[in-house]
Inverse folding.
């Protein structure tokens, strides 16, 4: 039962262009969404989050968009840099006592110089 | 200074053995977690402890026993290891935000790769 889905296992973009990573979810109780970045042999590191009461959150080159009616969110990276090459995980949580983060399977982003 | 550190980083062992993975965080967080990343790359929660109390146990076999001697440490002991236990195990910590609101941002360790032969 995948509550958080990242349907693209990989994405390749040119340096300087926009990277768009997508994520879909099924649980309407989720009220926070997070993106994590993971380099090989390291743990995931937090990138950016968004509350379900917002539709956009921006932090430098990273912007997350949330479409609640479609149960869809996306992470935009612009401009993309070779150092952005990593696996990106979408995660979601539902408040109300549980502090569990549910993760997607990840999308491997490769930014070519 | 590593925020969440886990040891060992690599562990190779035979089926049937018992092994432990240790985790320590120096962030002053109240909550600690164990996540498992299997061969299909899913990151799935196993356990969560808040101030040494178990709050999440995601139907993990009872061969897995977490132990939290204090809120800065959460160790994972695995008995009678099986081939299917081969995975990368990640420890993480966060501030308890359930009553404060806000995103629950986890800080992860670098992972411990367990290989069962």
């Amino acid at each position: 039962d995948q509550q958080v889905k990242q349907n693209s296992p990989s994405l390749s973009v040119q340096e300087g262009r926009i990277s768009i990573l997508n994520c879909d979810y099924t649980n309407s109780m989720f009220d926070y969404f997070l993106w994590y970045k993971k380099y090989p042999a390291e743990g995931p590191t937090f990138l950016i989050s968004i509350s379900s009461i917002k539709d956009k959150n921006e932090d430098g080159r990273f912007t997350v968009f949330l479409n609640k009616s479609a149960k869809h969110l996306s992470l935009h990276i612009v401009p993309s840099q070779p150092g952005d090459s990593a696996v990106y995980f979408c995660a979601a949580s539902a408040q109300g006592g549980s502090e569990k983060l549910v993760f997607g399977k990840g999308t491997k982003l490769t930014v070519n110089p | 200074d590593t925020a969440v550190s886990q040891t060992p980083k690599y562990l190779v062992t035979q089926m049937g053995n018992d092994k432990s993975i240790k985790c320590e965080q120096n962030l002053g967080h109240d909550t600690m977690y164990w996540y498992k990343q299997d061969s299909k790359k899913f990151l799935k929660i196993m356990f969560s402890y808040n101030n040494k109390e178990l709050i999440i146990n995601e139907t993990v076999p009872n061969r897995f026993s977490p132990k939290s001697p204090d809120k800065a440490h959460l160790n994972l002991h695995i008995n009678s290891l099986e081939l299917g236990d081969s995975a990368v195990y990640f420890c993480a910590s966060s501030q308890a935000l359930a009553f404060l609101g806000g995103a629950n941002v986890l800080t992860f360790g670098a992972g411990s790769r367990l290989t069962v032969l």
Q: What stands out?
A: Residues 73 and 112 of chain B are 15 Å apart (CA to CA). Chain B has a mean pLDDT of 90.
